[in-house]
Write a structure and sequence with these properties.
Blueprint: E1 2-6, H1 10-22, E2 26-30, H2 33-43, E3 47-51, H3 59-69, E4 75-79, H4 84-93, E5 97-100, H5 105-132, E6 137-138, E7 141-142, H6 146-159, E8 165-168, H7 175-184, E9 193-197, H8 203-211, E10 212-213, E11 225-226, H9 228-231, E12 236-240, H10 247-259, E13 261-262, E14 271-272, E15 276-281, H11 285-290, H12 296-302, E16 305-308, H13 318-330, H14 340-348, H15 354-369, H16 377-380, H17 385-390, H18 400-418, H19 423-430, H20 434-444
Parallel strand pairs: 1-2, 1-3, 3-4, 4-5, 8-15, 8-16, 9-12, 12-15
Antiparallel strand pairs: 6-7, 10-11, 13-14
Length: 455
């Protein structure tokens, strides 16, 4: 990152500049306020580190100008005169963090590396959002894999006709969304789209829902009621989970598809209908036909144009796009991020519950995120313990300094737990002085459990 180091003390400017350069950052040095303001205008640094006391108007002027030019740019202020009022004012004006002299160069390096990682995540998620808005969302269905592009092409082709379509796919793959897309792209889009799940109702209720009934047709029929066939007139009827339709209802459905008319339960009047029928199945209807659980004549009646939805595990590259779309749907306007390594891991996951399972995972991660803007990897993973046990959860290849810092923090915490938070014993255990331990705890933001000075 390009770092503007606004500092007039030569010792600090040189040593901190060297530390930042060693960490891979490009340092823009400014020894007074005017030089710092000029660098802000001309060199557009990504991060600003400024001393509060320096020749000219001082660091507060640098902070104010930086915020005016770019409110998203992080600014770290350095103060050698610990004044709560000045620190509070700097934070109020938009400073991201502050350090008090004397400080360890590593503290500022770590802050900047944190800013860099957050910015990288924001950039990745911004790119995903941009990709979603350009041809990667088809009628509300997210996907850019070859498998889904073939589905989209088939949907576009079949939507222009009035043919009956059988949508095949595992549970959770989005069969109803595909059915709705076919309807919205068809000549019937101004008519109603009426869905019904054949698995959700017992035989008697399913029949009543489909055909409607006259008053007094059965015990609870206190008034006449239109069924789904009538409600779908001029539009599309979607029969979800048709593989669960009882054989007795299959016979009556076949007649409606052949004759395009029906009678309500308890009625004698024949009613003509103009509907398009879309059906969906989560299992092979051919197998059900062989087993005698599905009528062969009905199968051929609805199997005019098949649309096969691939499971999520066969849609490589789609998971990152889906995660971003689901965050936007459930994040309530908050800009959550997901690391590159987590997205890569999720893209390799089996997702036996398909998009529905992934959506549940995103909702779970958002609910558990609390104040964190980055969703935790462990909250996003599938809950299948067999897969979790087989996969090694890893992070992306990171800078060595960051890896060493993470390892050091983990080791410090283990040492503190071993001594019950006793700082003197912890320092002895680690082979460092108590002062060095205190500095590390401060820089890493670690609270010693149950710590009372030396206790």
């Amino acid at each position: 990152m390009r770092v503007l180091l606004s500092e007039d003390e030569v010792t600090i400017a040189v040593t901190l500049g060297d530390a930042l350069t060693a960490a891979g950052h490009h340092v823009i040095a400014a020894a007074d306020t005017q030089a710092a303001l000029q660098a802000l205008e001309e060199q557009r640094p990504e991060v600003v580190v400024t001393d509060m006391r320096m020749p000219g108007a001082g660091g507060m002027a640098v902070l104010q100008r930086s915020v005016e030019l770019d409110r998203t740019r992080p600014v770290i202020v350095i103060t050698g005169y610990a004044s709560i009022d000045s620190v509070v004012e700097a934070m109020r004006l938009g400073a991201s963090n502050y350090v008090q002299k004397p400080f360890r160069n590593e503290a500022i390096v770590n802050m900047i590396e944190t800013f860099a990682r957050v910015r990288a995540l924001e950039s990745e998620n911004k790119e995903l959002r941009a990709r979603l808005s350009h041809d990667l969302s088809f009628e509300g269905i997210v996907g850019a894999s070859d498998a889904m592009l073939k589905v989209f092409e088939r949907v576009r082709t079949v939507a222009a006709t009035d043919a009956t379509v059988l949508i095949q796919g595992e549970s959770g793959t989005g069969k109803e969304r595909i059915a709705l897309a076919i309807h919205e792209l068809s000549q019937r889009k101004r008519g109603p789209f009426i869905p019904i799940s054949c698995a959700a109702l017992p035989e008697t209720l399913l029949e009543a829902e489909l055909f409607g009934h006259e008053k007094g047709a059965f015990t609870d029929a206190r008034k006449e009621r239109r069924g789904r066939f009538e409600l779908a007139h001029g539009g599309t009827l979607f029969l979800d989970d048709i593989d669960d339709m009882p054989l007795a209802v299959q016979v009556k459905l076949l007649r409606v598809l052949q004759e395009r008319n029906f009678e309500r339960l308890g009625g004698e009047e024949t009613r003509e209908i103009d509907i398009r029928v879309l059906a969906a199945t989560k299992v092979s209807l051919r197998d059900l036909v062989r087993e005698g659980k599905f009528r062969e004549d009905l199968f051929y009646r609805i199997h005019v144009v098949p649309v096969v939805l691939p499971p999520l595990r066969e849609r490589k590259g789609d998971v990152p796009l889906l995660v971003q779309a689901l965050i936007e749907r459930h994040g309530k306007g908050r800009a959550y991020t997901v690391s590159r390594s987590t997205l890569a891991l999720l893209d390799r996951a089996p997702w036996n519950g398909n998009v529905r399972e992934l959506e549940n995972a995103v909702q779970r991660a958002i609910a558990l995120a609390g104040a964190n803007s980055e969703l935790a990897q462990e909250d996003l993973l599938p809950i299948d313990p067999r897969w979790r046990g087989a996969v090694e959860v890893v992070d992306e290849v990171r800078p060595l300094r960051e890896v060493l810092r993470t390892t050091e923090i983990a080791h410090l915490k283990r040492a503190l737990e071993a001594t019950g938070g006793h700082r003197t014993q912890t320092a002895d255990l680690l082979g460092i002085s108590r002062k060095v331990l205190w500095e590390k705890l401060r820089d890493f933001g670690i609270d010693a459990p149950g710590d009372n000075g030396d206790a």
